[in-house]
Amino acid sequence: MSTTWLKRLQSSKVSESFNEYTQAINKLTKENAKDIILLLSDNNNNEELFKLLLSSAINKITSLSNDSSAELSEFLPYILSSIKLLQNPISILFQLLENLPQKRDEIARLKILEVLSKFEFNVANIINLLYKSDTDTVISDILKIKENMIDEFIRNSIKIDNPTVAKNLSSLLPSLDSKFFVNYNSFLFLFESESHYLRNCLLDIFQILVQKFKEHENIEAIRELTHHISERLCDVNFYVRSKALGVIGELFKTECILKDQRNTLIKDIIDRAKDKTVIVRKRSISLLSQILINHPFRDREHLDRTESMSKNMTEVQKRIAEDFDEFVGIMESGLSLIVSLLDYNLKTDLVEISGFIKVSYLLKLKGAKEAIQKILGVVFTKDRQVVVDVFKDILSHRGEILFEFINDKAFEVILSCLEIDEKILYKNVINGHRIFEGVYILRHTQKSVSESTALNLFQYITEILFKSKDEEALKMNIETYINTLCILKNLKHRIDCSSDVFTLCIKNVIKMVFFERSIIKHTVELIYCISSNPEITIGKLLKNLCLTKSTLKILMQ
């Protein structure tokens, strides 16, 4: 602004030059803002017009840059000084709080609140702020310096039927002291509000109250509030149903759920697993996983009902066992429902479904192994990684899962993606532990192996093959032998045709008194796969077969 403009306004009262001041404010910059504010203050002869102009100036300053709080904070001392003589600066002070982002300048915010605390204003002034978007934080600050108004504010504000007001209240009311909501029956009508914001707001308040009542051991209040919360699981709005699940999850986490309500609540949560809305289904299944992980029977390692009851139990022990049976039975029904969701190809819920099945398996819930087998089918889709992650997590807790899905084609695909300690497997097999399963796993991990390790394994499996006691053992040992040949294909590098590996291969083919086409086939494949000169090695095999007159074996090649 030019010096001429400044000089002209220096002798102009607000009431006489309102339009000129308006034009000046429209041209306001960071450089002349201080001068304009001081001129307004010096020439104030009409409070209402002055407040209009000052309000415009504040808005202009706020819009000067993206860092509006820095701009406003810089000129705040001049603005606060200019309103000291006003009889009613409430609207200006409220505006300053609105335009000053709380998180950016705490000192400036506190200065404004300090000035505001010296003036009288009524609840209606605060309620007016509710009609503006995102003013919940500002109102919260104001109520902190006028605590005597909170009760009246709550009573009057919750009666307003306005979407903006409802949204502001949904954030504001739960932040207030819970003592204002102890008479919770007075607020139940909010559950009938058309605004889902207010229904969610009351859920937040009831969660806080339940946790407070737990501290004071008010069991009846907890029971009643929990019931009201659970009813919202059937709300017409999916946001409210989701919110109710979240609140119930927090109450489980903080151990605020009463024992006599627990199982009924879990049934209600399971029912939400078939909700038509993705967000509700996902939250329901995740909550069931949380409840299962933190189940109330911590003295039990697994949720196995086969030995839960005993004749020698006391009455107390029987009640605990009955509760355990009911809890596990409900969770088993939940598992059955959640597994059935896989039939609908709900890709949006796959992570949550897999997570629940994983926890069920780790806790040995009945039907969990079958559930794992069903989810293995997902490995043939684009969502393979979800299944891989589930098995990695299970493997870190229960290593025996490696031996529970032998010969499952989907499991074979996953094996190559898992982090398995092959050294331990080789050692266990050589020591005679789970030979069939161990060799099967080593084959499908498809990891490279050294010649010495492979030869050691090959010699051991050969010995077992030719010591088969009966037809059933022979059949299993042939499969183990073929898997071993497949492991040999993963040698780190090609080997010389004079290697002991080929010597043993040829010797075994000659020695076989049984005819197994697959062994011949895999032996030939192995030679071509790892021999540095496969033609010579194959020649040795054929020569030895001819010398032993094994014509049929030659034809089988």
Notes on the structure:
The protein has 557 residues and is mostly helical. It has a domain at 303-417. The protein is 65% helix and 0% strand. It has helices at 3-10, 18-26, 33-42, 47-62, 68-82, 90-99, 106-116, 123-129, 136-145, 150-157, 163-172, 196-215, 219-231, 238-253, 259-272, 278-293, 315-340, 350-362, 368-376, 384-397, 409-415, 422-430, 435-445, 451-465, 471-488, 500-511, 517-530, 534-547, 551-556. Helix 4 runs parallel beside helix 6. It starts with a helix and ends with a helix. The model has no long low-confidence stretch (mean pLDDT 88).
Radius of gyration: 39 Å
**Helix/strand-derived class?**
mainly alpha
Mean pLDDT reading: 88
Q: What would the principal axes of the Cα set say about the shape?
A: elongated
Uncertain regions spanning at least 5 consecutive residues: none
User: Could you tell me the number of beta strands?
Assistant: 0
Protein name: Condensin complex subunit 1 C-terminal domain-containing protein
GO cellular component, one term: condensed chromosome, centromeric region
Keywords: DNA condensation
Organism: Vittaforma corneae (strain ATCC 50505) (Microsporidian parasite)
Q: What's a quick, concise take on this entry?
A:
65% of the residues lie in helices and 0% in strands.
